[in-house]
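User: Could you go from structure to sequence for me? I need the amino acid at each position, not a summary. Structure tokens:
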């Protein structure tokens, strides 16, 4: 079992049970206890979980910043369905921007068949993933700036300035929350700034957001409904959010189950 698969499985187990022992994890993942111990140590360093005596617990739900490995593994099936649906919006030869969210990373994994693309991202793992799967006809750009290790992204004033020097056909963006009053919100101002910059630099803004984010609000507003062109999700929206999308003529795509 590769590391990312093991991490995703550990997170899935912990989400169903707040605390799990090393022995339980070894049995459920069909790996040795020594392998689990090494994985838990790495995941704790990445901010995914907290090791306890003989086991592990998830980072508290109200924690502002969870590691990329946690976010990648959390609701991964829903994110993959969203990514598959969103990929259909792309045509060869387009210029696109992709933020550093885990949902956008999973989306990036789906676009390998496309050619003659120009792709800009502020996501470190996204940039590496694209460099490994895209062919030589695609130009890849990673924004400069301050590296936030837990978020596996690049942020700051120089990052937004770099983004705004470019112009894209499509921007693929996610968020920490979606509610009818604010729209898309995030837990850090730097994340919100990146999304605003990508919105300004793109002809069409596509929001990728899974149903676990519905009716959640964070401190920083990222995008209002009037700044979103397409919203791709995995489930039917709550009525109040659906009415906002209709009011602002946002095209809704609900991914196939």
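Assistant: Here is the amino acid at each position, in order:
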């Amino acid at each position: 079992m590769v590391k990312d698969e093991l991490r995703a499985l550990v997170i899935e187990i912990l989400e169903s049970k707040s605390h799990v022992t090393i022995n339980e994890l070894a049995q459920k993942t069909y790996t040795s206890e020594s392998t689990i111990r090494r994985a838990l140590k790495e995941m704790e360093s990445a901010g995914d979980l907290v090791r306890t005596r003989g086991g592990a617990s998830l980072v508290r739900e109200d924690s502002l910043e969870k590691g990329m490995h946690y976010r990648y593994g959390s609701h991964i099936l829903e994110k993959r369905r969203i990514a598959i649906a969103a990929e259909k919006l792309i045509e060869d030869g387009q210029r696109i921007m992709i933020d550093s969210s885990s949902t956008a990373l999973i989306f990036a994994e789906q676009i390998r068949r496309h050619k003659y693309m120009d792709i800009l991202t502020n996501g470190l793992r996204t940039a590496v993933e694209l460099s490994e799967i895209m062919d030589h006809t695609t130009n890849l750009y990673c924004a400069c700036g301050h590296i936030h290790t837990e978020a596996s992204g690049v942020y700051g004033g120089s990052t937004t300035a770099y983004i705004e020097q470019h112009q894209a056909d499509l921007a693929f963006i996610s968020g920490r929350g979606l509610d009818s009053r604010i729209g898309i919100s995030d837990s850090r101002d730097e994340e919100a700034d990146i999304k605003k910059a990508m919105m300004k630099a793109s002809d069409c803004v596509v929001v990728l957001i899974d149903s676990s984010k519905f009716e959640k609000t964070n401190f920083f507003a990222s995008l209002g409904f009037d700044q979103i062109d397409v919203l791709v999700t995995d489930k039917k929206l709550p009525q109040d959010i659906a009415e906002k999308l209709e009011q602002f003529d946002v095209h809704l795509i609900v991914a196939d189950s």
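One structural detail worth keeping in mind: The chain has ten helices and 15 strands.
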